[in-house]
Design a protein that fits this description.
mainly alpha; 1 helix
């Protein structure tokens, strides 16, 4: 009914003599190491594969670095060549501008000299023309009395 079974009693001793057995139990034997060895071998295989892949990646990285260095060197060489070309163009432009300044100064000097010569020539021609006109005017004035003194002539 409700309760415990009367026929079952707990035992108070687990071993007949009260001492624990010494040694390996007979039912268990030595453990089998084949599972452990198989796991270690699989780990070694995986490690070998990973090592190979890491070495392959290292080789690829070295190739990429080498290609990058080569590309960088090529670009640096091109940039140096362009820099040299730009410097050469600057030098040519500077030299050309200096030569042009000298030529323009020479032309202005020649124009100034020609203008000065032209002015002196024009002045000489004008002086001689004025002198000649003055001299011819004095000769005609000397033969005629001044206009104020002349009688007014009727206009026809």
């Amino acid at each position: 009914m409700g309760g415990r079974d009367q026929g079952h009693r707990p035992s108070t001793t687990s071993t007949p003599s009260g001492q624990l057995p010494t040694g390996t139990p007979q039912g268990y034997g030595l453990p089998d190491h084949s599972f452990t060895l198989q796991t270690i071998m699989e780990l070694q295989k995986s490690m070998g594969t990973l090592t190979g892949q890491v070495q392959h990646l290292s080789t690829l990285i070295e190739r990429l670095e080498s290609a990058s260095k080569d590309s960088t060197n090529k670009h640096e060489t091109k940039l140096e060549a362009l820099s040299d070309a730009v410097q050469e163009v600057k030098t040519k432009i500077s030299l050309t501008s200096k030569i042009a300044a000298i030529v323009v100064a020479g032309i202005l000097f020649l124009i100034g000299g020609a203008w000065s010569l032209a002015q002196s020539t024009i002045a000489d021609i004008a002086k001689s023309a004025i002198t000649q006109a003055f001299n011819s005017g004095q000769q005609s004035v000397a033969s005629q009395p001044p206009a104020i003194l002349q009688p007014a002539q009727p206009k026809p």
